[in-house]
Structure formats: C-alpha cells, structure tokens
Write a sequence for this structure.
C-alpha cells in the first residue's frame, strides 16, 4: 500500500525529487544516549543491524527485528512472533542481546526510574512529554506507559534531529527548492533540474554538520522510484 501511494507522488515537469533518509537514526540515538561501548562500536560498521546479527548468529532481518523489539519493550511472545521462532528461542535471543549490550540495558533502567519519579520524559534537546498513566490505577495501563518511556525519549530525539536538519537545509539551499514532505526520518525535496547537482553537493555537507547521523541521498521524479546517490 505504501509503495502504491508513493507511486502517485510525481515531481512537477522540470523538477526532480531529492530524498534525504536518515540511516538507522533511532539506534544511533540509543547508542549515543546510553553510551554503550558495544553499540557505539557497531555503529562504526555502518550497519548496526548487521553487526548485531553477526554477533548473535542470526540473519540481518532478525537482528533488526530483535533490536527494535528489545529496545521498545517486547516480551518473549511478541519477539517469537516477530522472529517466527519458539518462545524458548526468543528468550535465548533476549538473554544474548542483554549480554551483548549491558550498558544499554542499564541506561534504560536508569531512565525508567527517573521518569517514574518525575512523571515525564525529556528528549536530548529538552523536549518534555508528561506520562500521567505511569501512576494509573490499572497495572496494564501503567505497563503501557512504561513502554512509552524509552520509545518517547529515542523517537522524540530522532524527530528533533530530523527537524534540525530541515532547518539547516532551508537556511542554505536555494529558495527555488521546495520542501514537500517529512516522513518519519526522511525529507523529500522538489528541486529544479538545473539545481540538482548543486543541491546534492550541499546535502552531502550534512555529514559535516551532523556527523553522527548520516543521511542517504536519493534522486528521481517518482517517489517510489528514487535511485540512491553513491
């Protein structure tokens, strides 16, 4: 369905789309906030999901699914469903993941304890989100709010970074370039064809301005047919 919808988004004649897609930004935020040495080392490989998979002896897909499931509080039943394995195998995966990234899990518990006491989360940039359900009468509602703690800190920080990238680009790019969409961790720009190469060169400078958060650059005229610039 998503691909079908993207096929309907076509650049105006004489224009091309330039997509800037943040690479694994949530896991990067996690590694930096938690200061987990193994996660930071895995980031240096350029593909933290593959690095996790290699360490745990699973496919990249399972490494990626497991990374997000563990970070956002999935239990063994949900993880088993995601990895299409038994709950015993899911428990083994969870134990190995915690062994691989001990500082990450210590940081998550520290953050949860602080948020339970304060009643709100704070992103890397100081944005606050109250979580009143942490003191709800129902344990099920409290449990749901607990899962929101790390999710909110990480995703909130990632969104802040993407917004800052947009503000920076708007300040340096030609005003003939249109900011069409922000979809999660991606910016979609519509650029006059004669400015495409100049704009791509400007976008490459994001590596200097935001060195810890690389962006993949893709170009094309139909949103679901963009080609990555190497």
């Amino acid at each position: 369905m998503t691909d079908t919808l993207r096929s309907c988004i076509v650049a105006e004649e004489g224009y091309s789309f330039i997509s800037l897609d943040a690479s694994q930004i949530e896991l990067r935020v996690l590694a930096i906030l938690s200061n987990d040495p193994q996660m930071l080392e895995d980031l240096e490989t350029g593909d933290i999901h593959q690095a996790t998979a290699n360490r745990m002896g699973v496919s990249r897909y399972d490494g990626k699914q497991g990374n997000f499931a563990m970070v956002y509080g999935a239990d063994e039943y949900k993880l088993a469903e995601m990895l299409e394995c038994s709950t015993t195998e899911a428990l083994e995966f969870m134990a190995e993941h915690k062994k691989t990234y001990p500082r990450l899990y210590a940081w998550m518990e520290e953050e949860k304890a602080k948020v339970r006491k304060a009643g709100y989360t704070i992103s890397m940039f100081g944005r606050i989100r109250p979580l009143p359900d942490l003191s709800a009468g129902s344990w099920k509602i409290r449990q749901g709010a607990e899962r929101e703690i790390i999710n909110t800190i990480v995703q909130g920080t990632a969104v802040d970074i993407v917004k800052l990238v947009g503000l920076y680009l708007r300040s340096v790019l030609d005003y003939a370039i249109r900011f069409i969409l922000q979809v999660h961790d991606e910016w979609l720009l519509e650029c006059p064809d004669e400015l495409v190469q100049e704009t791509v060169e400007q976008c490459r400078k994001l590596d200097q301005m935001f060195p810890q958060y690389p962006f993949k650059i893709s170009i094309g005229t139909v949103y679901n047919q963009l080609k990555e610039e190497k």
